[in-house]
Structures are given as structure tokens and as C-alpha cells.
Amino acid sequence: AQRRAWGLLAAGGLGASLLALHAVVTPFVMPALRRVCLPFVPATSAQIENVLEMLRGRRGPLVDIGSGDGRIVIAAAKRGFKAVGYELNPWLVWYSRYRAWRDGVHQNAKFYISDLWKVSFSHYTNVVIFGVPQMMPQLEKKLEEELQHNARVIACRFPFPCWIPDHTTGEGIDTVWAYDLKTSMG
């Protein structure tokens, strides 16, 4: 009887461990199974500074598309922006919410679990994106259709294929391109 109890306990422990592993790993693996993979790569402090430089003098709501662990949104909120991050990975969204609360900017920094293709960005005047080359043409078209003419789009790591940047700063992986839609779209 004692041997059977240990067997059941071991089976239950193994099952619980596998369930926990599945819950932790799935949000990180699922994006890789999508048509366009957006891996989580944290923004460097230089990238954050370059983004903030491109936001200098700007007003209006800000959105970070694929906000990861919330670094850009939190930095922008600290500069007075009402900032929102959209991210597919629920673990990163919960962590971002915690960091915003810890840093005292949770009133101005909001995070949502959502697919960027299912969100309208029409009411944002400042857009930040850490994209991958495969998604930039589709995203360029989506933003052209949704954003107001006074919007500024800031691309990090990879530029948009057709738009002409109004400002560029940084070098290497820290390069940031700013597009003012009234001029970038012609």
C-alpha cells in the first residue's frame, strides 16, 4: 500500500511538473509557430535613449507594438506620455504591469495581451515598433491606413521598406528611424 501511494505521488508530481512546464514554455514557443515570428529581445539602454530622443517635443498617446517587458512604455510614461503596450506573451504583459506598478507609472502605462494585427492604432500619434524584416511591409501598410497624418512612427532595429525616415539616430542594432507620416508617405 505504501509503495502504491509513493507511485501515485510520483505520478502526480510528474504530471504537475509537466503542466507547469507547459504553462511557462507555451507563450514563448507559440510565437515561433506563427507566420511571422516576433522573438522577445529586450531593448538596450541605448535603444531606449534613442527612442526617447525621437520623442522629444512630441505630445499625444504612445503605443509600443510588441512591447516585450515594457521598457519603452515605462520609459515613455516616466517622460509624461500616456503609453500603451501590446504584447502576445501573457507572461511579459504581467511582468510589464508589475514593473510599471513598481516604478510608480501604472496610471500612465497600460499593457494588453493582443495580436498587433487585431488592434487599431488609429488614435495614437506616437508609435514604436521593434519589428522583424518579414513583417515591416505589412505593418507599413496597416499603419498607413490607420494613423493620422500627424503621427510619428519610430522603428527600432529594422527600418520600413518604403517610407523615407525624417530622422535617424544610433548605430548598429541601436539604430532608430523616425517617420513623420505627413512627409514619409509623400
Automatic annotation (TrEMBL):
Highest taxon above the source species: Eukaryota
Entry-linked SUPFAM superfamilies: S-adenosyl-L-methionine-dependent methyltransferases
GO biological process, one term: regulation of mitochondrial ATP synthesis coupled proton transport
Membrane topology qualifier: Single-pass membrane protein
Subcellular compartments: Mitochondrion membrane
Keyword Membrane: yes
Keyword Isomerase: no
InterPro entries, per the entry: FAM173A/B, SAM-dependent_MTases_sf
GO molecular function annotations of the record: protein-lysine N-methyltransferase activity
Family the UniProt entry places it in: Belongs to the ANT/ATPSC lysine N-methyltransferase family.
Identification of the protein by name: ATP synthase subunit C lysine N-methyltransferase
Organism the protein comes from: Tinamus guttatus
Lineage: Eukaryota, Metazoa, Chordata, Craniata, Vertebrata
